[in-house]
Write a structure and sequence with these properties.
Chain A: Pfam families: Oxidored_nitro. The complex is a heterodimer of chains A (462) and B (552). Chain A has 462 residues and is an alpha/beta fold. Chain A contains 18 helices and 15 strands. The longest helix of chain B has 22 residues. The chains are: A alpha/beta (462), B alpha/beta (552).
Amino acid sequence: MTIVTYSDKACTINPLKMSQPIGGSFAFLGLRGAMPLLHGPQGCTSFGLTLFVRHFKEAVPLQTTAMSEVSTVLGGYENVEQAILNIYKRVKPEIIGINSTGVTETKGDDVEAFIRLIRQNHPHLKKFPLVYVSTPDFKDAFQDGWEKTVARMVEVLVDSVDAAAPHDSLRVNVLPGCHLTPGDLDELRTIFEDFGIRPSFLPDISGSLDGHIPDEFTQTTIGGIGVDEIATMGQAAWTIAIGAQMRRAAEAMQARTGVPFRLFERLCGLIPNDEFITFLSDISGKSVPKRYRRQRGQLADAMLDTHFHIAGRKLAIGAEPDLLFDISSVLYEMGAQVTAAVTTTASPVLERVKAKEVVIGDLGDLEDLAKARQCDLLISHSHGRQAAARLDIPFYRAGFPIFDRLGAGHRMSVGYRGTRELIFDLANLIIADREDNRQPTPATWRTGDAGRCRSAATELLI
Amino acid sequence: MSSLSATIQDVFNAAGCPKNANKSEVERKKGCTKQLQPGGAAGGCSFDGAKIALQPFTDVAHLVHGPIACEGNSWDNRGSASSGPDLWRTSFTTDMNEIDVVLGGEKRLYKAIKEIIEKYDPPAIFVYQTCVPAMIGDDIDAVCKIAAAKFGKPVIPVNSPGFVGSKSLGNKLAGEALLEYVIGTQEPDYITPYDINLIGEYNLSGELWQIKPLLDEIGIRILSCISGDGKYHEAACSHRARAAMMVCSRAMINVATRMKERYGIPFFEGSFYGIQDTSEALRKIARMLIERGAPRHLMECTEAVVAREEATAWAAIERFRPRFAGKKVLLVTGGVKSWSVVAALQEAGLEIVGTSVKKSTSDDKQRIQQLMGHDAHMIEDLTPREMYKMLREAKADIMLSGGKSQFVALKAAVPWLDINQERCHAYMGYVGIVRLMEEIDKALYNPMWDQLRRPAPWDVTEVTWHAKALGPMEVPVAGGRPNSVGAEKVARANRTHSCSTVDFSIINHRIPAHGSTATDAMAHDAEASAACMRRTEENTPAQPTSALQAVE
């Protein structure tokens, strides 16, 4: 079993972690007509906004209750009320999703009570969807914010259903973890539809952050799952949760509606997809379509072609728990060693990462470990670029944020096809690095002793 | 915190700031920043402002005391360039956890400072205060003082927690930290009569280096640049400069004015954006240095460089004039760029149909009036939809703005160029302005736009996104309208025949533009519109390849 350790430094050097509230806002961005709102000073929103814009290259709706020094001491309620009223009036959202921040949690604002009071004082908001999630900055990480927020969405927005009520056998709920991209969700949708299954993704960032040109001029999210569709999720036959972080939401769904769930901790790799496709075949009663039989063969062939480059690599990886588990496992299964692994927050999957140790720490830890253990491949979000340059090893960007490469929203790692793309990209990176930086020279294999012998030989010749 | 509020009052009372000087006592107490509207604000906070202002100091460790959000969500996000040290790009934060919030984070902060010194040994550490530790009463001034004494190294508290106000207030609070703890604490190895300070220049995309060779040639030394490509020692010695230029509007006006009061260093406000502004700035620097005792021939050197560089730049820009004739620009940016870029664009013959003045001071606005005349279209604050409407109604051919508003233009298939901090090109000085023109030209004349403005062949709906956006505004927002745009008829809406894809004005723009040089492109345009007409007449399915074939 893997040992999970905590970095014991007082100073975080080059953070891997991002804060919990924006993980929560990210989940709200997967709802249609949504306006995520951070209850805190304006900077919390501004930083989060910039981060999303740099990653997705999309306009991102994100608002703030604009807490000032004075309102931090004296107020709180007024800011939440004003913000909701202003957003409701100005941008006409279908839902406002609120996350707390460090300031308002330190202060101790009871936002649920605020919301009740707001509904009371403004009857037109009585039924308006408002979801609040407590997400203090000083606890947990981005992935936890997503996890808590999706679970809360289920609790608030899904209509409870009598467990005995009939379920739609071809409808499934899909609860994707925050490590999946809009491209991943699009791929999953195609797979479900090929089995005749109608999926409801909660949240669905493929509708809002996939980079399309919207039909409407709107200041809210330009797509995603609608509140109406979420309400009916209790009618589905199954809930499929992707990533261990989604267990909480899946359990909430089951508790509320009786819909059973199946958790897939990984959807990258051959075996995880065999399980996934088999499951879809089982629940749909359809045999596996030809397309996936072919794709499985293509992935197997891609593994054959790429294993020469991936096997034996000493991988240093820094990512949030579910992404770390997913990518490190698939590379381990192809012969790479997970030599240094750093993550942001606790998770049950960490003890199953195929490494001796997983550190809950920062990119500074990852860089130190990678150096000490002579890693020769670094995987992390874009912030790992400085470490990779200093270590002089190939660097593969994965996770959030990826701000220095384009198309982050369309990168894909799920399914046979996604896995195939991932391992091709990685192997190509390694090949390019070898060609650019590791060309052999006459001195490459020469040892010190050989040099001495040669000089002796030269002397003999003279 | 009492000292922080005193500092903020001090900043508001800044002598050199006419905006505040004209206010009543009560007004002044309220401060520079407008009360933010919950649910309607999107700007950066004071911490952000302080960090932006100081982070370009390259050899310093920047330690953020707070929960992960403040640093973890924002680090390594600015394109300042360094000529040497890269410690500034390493991110340090105390990442306060729940226990720290309950028990106080001072011990963690002290340990963090110790760890940084042990591992990196920087010439100084800047410690940034944020909201949560400010709330719970962590006294970073005291921790920094103790750490500085213990480790024998400058540890500078930057007291600018996010909730005290806006980004621009943060710039000034950063300036206060420099004035209190840095400037005047060290001595330069030698001084010359040609030493200047640049204040408020951040060397984004390395643009300082578009100016530095000219200063080198003239013989002027940048004793300290605050803070682009700056080093701690230089800033600490900056009190020995003979003159100073305030580069980025009033972001750090307090630094300039206090240095004048304390050390008698005269300063002026100038810009290196645009040919004439650059020349003017160089001349002013030379004049100031001469007034303070530099030899008179400095002006001759300056004039020689100015004449040569101007000639080169004008010649380089000349080729854009015919291509830019009649082209209209909407400028959505803040502060100094609202006027300094205006001048630069006008030099190349572009017409400015509007500029935002959201972050500009009254002085900035006056300059805009001077440059653009009395009917200058100053835009206070725009919602994205209003911005889009403005783009269409003012018939702007290109929008220049910061990254956050780019999609308003891009999604409407209107050319756009980034002129804020995330951009990847340097636009300063004589070479920079030519580069800016090249970028504008590339954006304006990209053949892609014509393709993108067409709907998919199978899209029959007449109700387009553009039409919806231009529909009646349901929520009128006060103060958001330009002064005089809007009365004109929307020429862009005149479609060719019943074809909904190609605008008259687009074709009209393209014909003179290509007429003399590129006959293929003419054929392309003609073919494209002909294909369109054919399609409507015959009511046949569209031929999406026709335009491409014409190009080939």
